[in-house]
Amino acid sequence: MNTVQLQVTGMTCGHCVAAVTKALKSVPGTQDAQVDLASGRVTVQGSAAPEALVKAVADEGYGVTLKD
Which of 9, 28, 45, 47 registers the highest number of CB atoms within 10 A of its CB? Predict the structure, then answer.
């Protein structure tokens, strides 16, 4: 199982966290997604392609970058 770290901008509330979590969990291969509203850091576990995770979050209207 891989771990992917994302940095998400534009989240301001619990609804944002729920939207990002739902979007990430809809990507095939995602096992779990943990979203930290305060820092904007997201940890995704599973076999999902990082590019697909970034696209899923961007499609929800948030800024997103891959973290090393």
Answer: 45
pLDDT at 59 (0 to 100): 98
* CB-CB contact of 23 with 6 (8 Å): no
d(CA 59, CA 3): 21
pLDDT of residue 34: 98
Residues of the chain with pLDDT under 70: none
Strand partners, 33: 44
Q: How far apart are CA 63 and CA 29, in angstroms?
A: 22
- Please tell me the predicted confidence (pLDDT) of residue 54: 98
Strand bridging mode 2-9 / 30-35: unpaired
Structure-block tokens of residue 57: 């979050």
